[in-house]
Specification:
This protein is an alpha+beta fold. The chain has 17 helices and 18 strands. Strands 7-6-10-8-9 form a five-stranded mixed beta sheet, covered by helices on one side. Strand 6 (162-169) and strand 7 (175-180) form a beta hairpin.
Length: 443
C-alpha cells in the first residue's frame, strides 16, 4: 500500500504547501509512529489553513489517513490554535466520530512560530529534533493542512493544479480564494478589488517569512500561501528590500550586542547552537572565525529576531541568510551528531504572543479572518514555472501551440533527481515557453 500511495502522490506533483515546496512523495516514503497535521496557521494574517479545516475537513482527513497508511504511523494529530474556534469545533467532532482510533487533535497556544515544524514537534510530542535535522529523526512526519488536502486528491488521481491563497492588506476585498497555479498576481489583485493605495508592494507569503515581489507580473506557485498588499514604506516591507551592503553597514554601526535576538530565537530555545547576536558580531570582529559563522546554518529564518526581538530594528535574519549563502557556496555543512538537544530552561516562558507580534508589525488592522468570495476566480492566462519546489526543475513536456487540458502533464521529474511533476492548471493553448515558465492562454 505504501508504494501505491507514494506513487500516486508523486504522479500528482504534490509538494509541501506550507514551506519551501519539498516533494511530498519523498517525505511520506518513510516509517514513523506519528504524523502531525500542521494547521497552526503560523504566519499572522494567513487564513487558508483554518478555512480548509473548517470547510474541507473530510478531504483533509482522507489525506491524513493516506499518510498514516504510507508511513505506518499509529497516531495522526491535527494541530490547530484554539483561537480558530469554528475550525477547532469541526475537528473535535470529526475526531470523536472517527472509528479508526488513529486520530487526535492538539490545541495550540497562540504564539509565533507555532507552525515551525521543529517547534510543533516539541509542543505536541515533547521530542526535540536534532540540530540541522528533520522530524523524521524523532519518528515524526509533519504535513501541512493543504498538503493533506492535495494528497487526498492525489489518491483519487487528481493532480495538484490549484492553490488556496489569502489576499489581504490594502486591498479592496480581503479573501481566501482558490486559484489555478500560475495565476498572475496582478489578475488576482484585480479580482480582489485592486489596491486601495496607488503605490504599493506585494508580499508573497506571510509578513514574517514572505518575500517582496519585484512586480505584480509574477505567478502564484504551489507554495504561495498569501499575497499581502502594503505601503512600500511599511515596516514589513523595508528590511525585505534593503540591499545587503546597507544591512552590513547598519549592523556594524548600530548592533549593541544586547543578545535579545538570541534570547527569543526559537531554535536557540530548543537547545540548538545558534546565537544570532554572535552572528551579527561576525560581520566585524569575528568575520574570520569559521566556527562562529557555521551557526548560521541552523537558522530557520522565522524572523522573530528581526521583527520582534531587536530593539534597534536590525535584521539578524538577513545577516544569517547572507552568511549561510556564503557557507553553502563553500560547501560547508553543519556537522551535528544527531543527538536530541536539551531545551533552554526558559523556553516555556519565552513564547511570542501573535497579537503582540501583529501590533509590532502594524498589521493588526488586517487581521479580519476573511472567507471565500461568492464568485469563482477564473483567469484568462497562467504562467506556470517548471521550478516551484525544492530539487531539480521539471523537464518541459509541451511545446508552443499545444492544446492542453487542466491536469495534463507539462513538466516531468528528471531521471534520478529530486523534483516534482507540473501540470496544466487551466484548459488552453501553450503560447510561450521562456526561462522555464510555460504560459497558457485560456480557450
Amino acid at each position: 500500500m505504501q508504494k501505491e500511495i507514494v506513487e500516486k502522490v508523486k504522479n500528482a506533483g504534490v509538494v509541501g504547501a506550507g514551506g519551501a515546496g519539498f516533494p511530498t512523495h519523498v517525505k511520506i516514503n518513510a516509517e514513523v509512529d506519528t504524523v502531525l497535521v500542521n494547521g497552526a496557521s503560523c504566519e499572522p494574517l494567513l487564513m487558508s489553513d483554518p478555512w480548509i479545516m473548517e470547510h474541507e475537513l473530510d478531504i483533509m482527513i482522507e489525506g491524513l489517513h493516506a499518510v498514516l497508511d504510507a508511513t505506518g504511523a499509529k497516531r495522526g494529530v491535527i494541530c490547530i490554535k484554539g483561537k480558530h474556534k469554528k475550525a477547532l469545533a469541526t475537528i473535535k467532532e470529526a475526531v470523536e466520530k472517527d472509528t479508526t482510533g488513529r486520530l487526535e487533535y492538539f490545541e495550540l497556544r497562540d504564539f509565533y512560530p507555532a507552525g515551525d515544524e521543529q517547534v510543533l514537534v516539541r509542543e505536541v510530542t515533547g521530542r526535540t529534533v536534532p540540530e540541522a535535522g528533520i522530524p523524521l529523526q524523532v519518528g515524526v512526519v509533519v504535513s501541512n493542512t493543504e498538503s493533506l488536502y492535495n494528497i487526498a486528491n492525489a489518491i483519487n488521481e487528481v493532480p495538484l493544479t490549484d492553490r488556496f491563497v489569502t489576499v489581504t492588506g490594502e486591498i479592496g476585498q480581503d479573501m481566501v480564494v482558490k486559484v489555478p497555479v500560475g495565476t498572475i498576481v496582478s489578475d488576482l489583485l484585480a479580482f480582489a478589488g485592486g489596491s486601495k493605495i496607488s503605490e504599493y508592494k506585494v508580499v508573497d507569503g506571510g509578513p514574517m517569512m514572505g518575500r517582496v515581489l519585484p512586480d505584480t507580473d509574477q505567478p502564484v506557485t504551489k507554495t504561495t500561501s498569501g499575497l499581502i498588499v502594503l505601503d512600500p514604506n511599511h515596516n514589513v516591507v523595508k528590511n525585505k528590500i534593503m540591499d545587503s551592503e546597507s544591512i552590513k553597514r547598519i549592523t556594524g554601526s548600530i548592533c549593541c550586542q544586547c543578545s535579545q535576538c538570541t534570547e527569543l530565537c526559537p531554535r536557540h530555545l530548543l537547545g540548538h547552537a545558534i546565537q544570532p547576536h554572535k552572528l551579527m558580531r561576525s560581520l566585524s570582529a569575528l568575520v574570520a572565525d569559521p566556527e562562529a559563522r557555521k551557526a548560521a546554518l541552523l537558522c530557520c529564518e522565522c524572523g522573530a529576531c528581526e521583527k520582534f526581538a531587536c530593539p534597534m530594528g536590525l535584521s539578524p535574519r538577513e545577516v544569517n541568510a547572507m552568511i549561510r549563502k556564503e557557507l553553502m557556496k563553500e560547501g560547508i555543512r553543519w556537522a551535528g551528531d544527531g543527538s536530541e538537544p536539551e531545551n533552554h530552561p526558559m523556553r516555556d516562558m519565552r513564547y511570542i504572543p501573535t497579537k503582540r507580534l501583529m501590533q509590532r508589525l502594524d498589521v493588526l488592522k488586517y487581521d479580519t479572518h476573511p472567507g471565500m468570495p461568492e464568485e469563482t476566480f477564473v483567469p484568462e492566462r497562467v504562467a506556470i514555472p517548471l521550478a516551484q519546489h525544492i530539487g531539480a526543475p521539471a523537464i518541459c513536456q509541451v511545446k508552443v501551440g499545444d492544446v492542453v487540458a487542466k491536469g495534463d502533464l507539462i513538466g516531468e521529474i528528471p531521471e534520478g533527481a529530486l523534483g516534482a511533476r507540473i501540470h496544466a492548471s487551466i484548459n488552453g493553448t501553450v503560447t510561450s515557453i521562456d526561462n522555464g515558465v510555460v504560459c497558457i492562454q485560456k480557450r
